[in-house]
Amino acid sequence: MDRQSPDARDEEISTDPTPSSRRIAPVDASRVLIVATSRINRIVVAKIIERSGLKILSDLPENAESILDRLTPGTVILDCGPENRDCEHLMTRLATLRQNTQDGLPKVVLLTSRLPAAANIVVSEAVDAVVPKPIIPERLQAVVDRLSGRD
Q1: What confidence score (pLDDT) does residue 124 get?
Q2: What are the DSSP E strand ranges found in the chain?
Q3: What is the pLDDT of residues 61-91, one digit of tens each?
Q4: DSSP string of 15-57?
Q5: N or C: which end of the chain has fewer CB within 10 A?
Q6: DSSP 3-state assignment of 143?
Q7: The predicted structure's pLDDT at residue 22
Q8: Is 147 in contact with 109 (CB distance < 8 Å)?
Q9: Which residues are 58's β-sheet partners?
């Protein structure tokens, strides 16, 4: 049985019975996946992103790969915690998705309170933008709008 977290606001998405096959899931550029350990941060970011008219998926870092097995969102927002380590396991998966989709999706935004550490991640093929904390709605929304082509 496929379980989703209580705050994953997502219509029914068909699943491949063998998600470990790592096929590229269908791309939906209108969706944004918010990945964070803190439920409060997921809710705050979702409220900001909803202003852009995008559809929200929200979950914990440990559940994000199963979502990416079913769907490739247009944008992924990662809140990797105070040490930028909560989402490390997703970086390779995101880089692979970007290499295998026509438009280089998903676009990836990293939310961080540790900018020097984030500078190393930006060099990675998996991150498009770094937004410093505290999260300011105008700043985050502008970045997401630019990456999704809505600016």
Answers
A1: 65
A2: 27-36, 55-59, 72-79, 107-112, 129-132
A3: 999 999 999 999 999 999 988 877 888 889 8
A4: --S-GGG-PPPPEEEEEEEEEES-HHHHHHHHHHHHTTT-EEE
A5: N
A6: helix
A7: 59
A8: yes
A9: 34
